[in-house]
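Please decode residue identities from the backbone states below.
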């Protein structure tokens, strides 16, 4: 199979088309290797057969053999020699992917020693084959021994010893100059193989101060700062607690996307509510396979907003799903296919399928009505039932009277598994994300084409990237050429061809002409939600850190090489920077290295632009040989941004920063060393609660970079992370405040108002609260949260946690009563510090060297309705209970 090639590109050594190395050479190697294996096995079996048959007789010295046996073995030896000659021919071409030089590809020693050696070995192998064939007539042992001896001698001296001496005595002392032409080949090929020839480079001054004009121009970017982190330990826990609704629902993961909210492009987190079979009220066969067959709807949280009680603001929520703020409505909420779904279900049986439970405890039920061929397999006969009963090892499929000839069995329901079974020749991202479009829920899975046979390109296994990549362990060419769209209701799967210039995909498309659909046929709504995949962006940014150096001399010295910044990651903060395991090909951990920054999805404007776009970002620091961050330079060298909206999808831009610019790891160190932050962590991280920090966000504002980390608090026993503070860093200045707007206002030195009623927040939903003081409402919301946690702990039999939460709730109520009393006699109130598990919110402004605490001053009036009094009374009654 040859297939199309990338623009007729030829390798610089043998001037063969790239397609030859990708498609033909691997197959030819396969044929030669298997032929050699077959011949060797045949030779061994023949020797044993002749020995057992008396054709070979043992004796001292050389065994005696019949002339016919010698002739037979000589023929087999000649065929082996000819096969080795063919192998040497292929090995010559294979040198363009050698891994024994300064960079991958044929280097100086390969071209000047190994290549001539292999050409000589071709001749020697053919000569040996001729001697062996001549031995058919002579029928002795001398000629075969001579042929093998000459071949072994030449292979050892010319193929092993001479290249090693040349490398040691000539190349190593003058490596920079001798390897320069081959380094140049490697640079050119690697940039082409990883699609890095179209990266735009710009300068970014990264000043430590931000002008009022820059703040004004960046208002939309500041409004879109992501407050909710998609890490599994943070927002996923909040989704699970607040939006799974029933115990048998769950969220497997959250995706970062963008939607238009009230007419403005806004970052969101989206999760799909799916059935958790292990949490069903009854584990009966009917429940598991016929009744609870599907999840219900999706949940979308506005990633840039939070309620005043620290909870997310949901644009799509609840069961049945309801949409607000201009987000699309879900008209088909049933989810039969979801990420991580295992096991099988049988839909459209006599047994009604549960959609959801109403507030009065009754079930809303339905039957599957999909007709797509991919929506499972219709069980139209007893033979099919028997086959599936045997295949799935479940006799109930054969004997159940609930299954009809219209029923459909769905046994592959995970979107990634669907894609892998349909196209096993592609590699797929293991973390699909959901999209709501046209009333339907879809899964989008990124598909990659890869090879490790692109001539002179550097293999990916030499790079340090973020952990968790779905790409194979070894490749030197990659394209995200396929987007797989799977309907969550019907399972209908469409493979979209998104890269007509990828030769590997076009070869597959020619082999399977009806499999791939042009991107132009994807709906505009789905195209608007395509993401540049994190796996591809991570390896591209890692490769570019070194391959932005196009001069062989600069590349060799690596004086200006970059690597991805270390990261503190997200979640609990037991250490300043995360570490990740380094494993060998057998999966064994051989060492540890500092974890690298994962791509960050955000909605923002590119520097110099005012248009909000969906971006993904990685940051660079100077490259270092050590994997330990202790003595390494963690200052930012540059940052790479990829845009993802239609029209500029996949555009890569690198912004170079001056020396000494603080990087993300520096910002994390400043945060960890800050007295106020460490005090808050100590205060919150005790008595059954824990502190979680989000990923460090890199936000360009004008020609400056600010770093932001959301600060969450959650119960250790019943985690419901709530946004408590926002930490900001500019230069070495660190600010931690209860809202994004107050953090930005102090950090940037100008008043900033972010989305929502009060600065940095969106008021909690519900009836109007009149003019209840902000502090009072916060205390009441906190008390209500403690009350709900207490009830959960009581149901679980955890009396210790129950009593602790009740005590905390009582403290919040008392604080609210004190605030109300103070508000009735004066026009301002002052924040009161309390020693509870979750302290009252406070204002604080700090830098890296000083810290101050300021009281919150809020103008209030007496409440005009009974909501506050009712809430206090209810909470007080709860304490008495």
């Amino acid at each position: 199979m040859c297939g199309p090639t990338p623009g007729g590109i030829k390798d610089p050594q043998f001037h063969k088309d790239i397609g030859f190395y990708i498609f033909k050479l691997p197959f030819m190697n396969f044929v030669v290797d298997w032929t050699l294996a077959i011949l060797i096995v045949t030779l061994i079996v023949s020797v044993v057969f002749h020995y057992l048959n008396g054709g070979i007789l043992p004796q001292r010295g050389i065994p005696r053999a019949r002339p016919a046996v010698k002739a037979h073995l000589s023929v087999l030896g000649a065929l082996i020699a000819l096969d080795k000659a063919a192998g040497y021919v292929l090995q010559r071409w294979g040198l363009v992917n050698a891994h024994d030089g300064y960079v991958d590809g044929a280097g100086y020693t390969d071209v000047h020693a190994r290549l001539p050696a292999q050409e000589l070995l071709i001749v020697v192998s053919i000569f040996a084959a001729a001697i062996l064939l001549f031995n058919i007539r002579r029928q002795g042992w001398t000629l075969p021994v001579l042929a093998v001896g000459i071949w072994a001698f030449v292979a050892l001296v010319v193929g092993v010893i001479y290249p090693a001496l040349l490398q040691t005595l000539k190349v190593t002392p003058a490596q920079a100059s001798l390897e320069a032409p081959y380094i140049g080949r490697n640079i050119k090929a690697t940039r082409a193989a990883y699609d890095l020839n179209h990266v735009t480079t710009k300068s970014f001054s990264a000043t430590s101060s931000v002008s009022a004009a820059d703040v004004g121009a960046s208002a939309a970017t500041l409004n879109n700062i992501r407050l909710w982190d998609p890490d599994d330990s943070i927002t996923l826990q909040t989704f699970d607690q607040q939006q799974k609704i029933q115990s048998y629902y769950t969220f497997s993961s959250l995706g970062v996307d963008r939607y238009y909210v009230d007419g403005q492009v806004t970052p969101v987190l989206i999760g799909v509510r799916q059935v958790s079979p292990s949490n069903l009220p009854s584990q009966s066969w009917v429940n598991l396979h016929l009744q609870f067959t599907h999840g219900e709807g999706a949940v979308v949280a506005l990633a840039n907003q939070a309620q005043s009680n620290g909870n997310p603001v949901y644009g799509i929520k609840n069961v049945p799903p309801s949409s607000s703020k201009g987000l699309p409505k879900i008209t088909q909420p049933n989810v039969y296919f979801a990420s991580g779904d295992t096991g099988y279900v049988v839909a459209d049986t006599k047994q009604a399928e549960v959609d959801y439970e109403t507030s009065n405890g009754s079930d809303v039920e339905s039957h599957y009505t999909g007709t797509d061929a991919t929506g499972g397999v219709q069980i139209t006969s007893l033979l099919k039932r028997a086959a599936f009963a045997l295949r799935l090892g479940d006799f109930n499929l054969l004997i159940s009277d609930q299954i009809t000839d219209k029923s459909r069995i769905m046994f592959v329901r995970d979107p990634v598994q669907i894609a892998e079974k349909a196209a096993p020749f592609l590699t797929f991202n293991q973390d699909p994300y959901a999209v709501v479009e046209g009333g339907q829920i879809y899964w989008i899975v990124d598909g990659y084409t890869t090879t490790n046979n692109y001539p002179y390109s550097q293999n990916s296994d030499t790079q340090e990237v973020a952990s968790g990549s779905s790409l194979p362990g070894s490749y030197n060419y990659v394209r995200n050429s396929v987007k797989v769209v799977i309907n969550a209701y019907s399972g209908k799967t469409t493979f979209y061809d998104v890269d007509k210039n990828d030769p590997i995909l076009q070869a597959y498309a020619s082999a399977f002409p009806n499999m791939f659909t042009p991107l132009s046929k994807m709906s505009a709504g789905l195209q608007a939600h395509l993401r540049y995949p994190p796996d591809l962006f991570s390896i591209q940014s890692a490769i570019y850190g070194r391959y932005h150096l196009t001069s062989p001399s600069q590349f060799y010295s690596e004086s200006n090489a970059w690597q991805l910044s270390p990261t503190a990651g997200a979640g609990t903060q037991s250490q300043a920077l995360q570490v990740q395991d380094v494993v060998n090909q057998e999966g064994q951990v051989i060492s540890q290295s500092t974890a690298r920054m994962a791509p960050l999805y955000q909605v923002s404007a590119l520097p110099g632009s005012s248009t909000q776009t969906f971006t993904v970002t990685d940051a660079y620091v100077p490259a270092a040989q050590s994997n330990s961050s202790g003595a390494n330079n963690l200052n930012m060298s540059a940052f790479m941004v990829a845009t993802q909206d239609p029209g500029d999808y996949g555009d890569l831009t690198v912004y170079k920063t001056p020396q000494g610019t603080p990087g993300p790891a520096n910002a994390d160190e400043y945060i960890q060393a800050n007295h106020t932050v460490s005090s808050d962590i100590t205060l919150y991280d005790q008595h059954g609660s824990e502190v979680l920090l989000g990923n460090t966000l890199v936000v360009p504002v004008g020609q400056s970079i600010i770093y932001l980390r959301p600060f969450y608090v959650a119960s250790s026993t019943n985690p419901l992370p709530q946004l408590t503070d926002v930490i900001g860093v500019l230069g070495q200045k660190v600010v931690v405040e209860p809202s994004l707007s107050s953090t930005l206002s102090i950090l940037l030195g100008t008043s900033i108002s972010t989305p929502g009623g009060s600065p940095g927040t969106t008021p909690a939903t519900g009836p109007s609260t009149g003019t209840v003081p902000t502090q009072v409402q916060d205390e009441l919301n906190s008390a209500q949260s403690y009350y709900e946690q207490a009830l959960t702990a009581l149901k679980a039999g955890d009396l210790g946690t129950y009593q602790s939460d009740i005590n905390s709730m009582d403290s919040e109520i008392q604080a609210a009563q004190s605030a109300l009393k103070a508000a009735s006699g004066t026009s301002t109130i002052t924040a009161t510090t309390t020693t509870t598990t979750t302290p009252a919110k406070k204002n604080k402004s700090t830098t890296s060297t000083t810290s101050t605490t300021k009281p919150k001053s809020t103008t209030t009036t007496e409440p005009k309705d009974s909501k506050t009094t009712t809430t206090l009374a209810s909470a007080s009654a709860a304490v008495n209970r």
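Observation: Residues 273 and 593 are 36 Å apart (CA to CA).
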